Amino acid sequence: MSQPDTNTDITKDPRAANRARFELELEFVQSLANPYYLHSLAQQGILNQPAFVNFLKYLLYWKEKDYARFILYPHALHHLELLQHAKFRTEIAKDEWREALNQKQFDHWRTWREFKPPLDPALSDAPITDETK
Q1: Which terminus of the chain has fewer Cβ atoms in its 10 Å neighbourhood, N or C?
Q2: How many domains does the chain have?
Q3: CA nearest neighbour of 72 among 18, 111, 33, 23
Q4: How large is the angle between the packed helices 75-82 and 95-111, nearest 10 degrees?
């Protein structure tokens, strides 16, 4: 039994082609959330290729509200922004930078939902005590 040629099907249907491109670019942008992946790209010299740098610049449209809502890993957008800078693209090739970025990401994930007391005591459920007595 022969399989249909999906490449031919996609090129014939513009909506299918747009969807495939959207999904491919979404998956790639989300992969940028992984510091180890960024490190690997840098060590292979991919991050310094002019065509790839232009592609990273093109992908900034994912920061727009209409597209960002599809991103499951918000660090991907932060890393995409960092990748716009040549210094970051060079430094992420170093093990120390990869580990530092990985640790910062982990610390953020670990603490971002911790309870923070409200600034206005009237909004707090805790009883208000008079500490002057």
Answers
A1: N
A2: 1
A3: 33
A4: 150
- pTM value is 0.72
Q: Is residue 73 part of a domain?
A: yes
Handedness of CA 34, 39, 40, 44 (dihedral sign): positive
CB 79 within 8 A of CB 32: yes
In a domain, 1, yes or no: no
- pLDDT per residue over 89-130, tens digit each? 999 999 999 998 888 888 877 766 666 666 766 655 555 555
Q: How far apart are CA 125 and CA 119, in angstroms?
A: 12
CATH number at residue 56: 1.10.10.1340
What is the distance between the alpha carbons of residues 62 and 58, in angstroms, rounded to a whole number? 9
Does any domain span residue 128? Answer: no
Q: Which domain holds residue 76?
A: 8-112
Share of the chain above pLDDT 70, in %: 74
CB atoms within 10 A of CB 128: 8
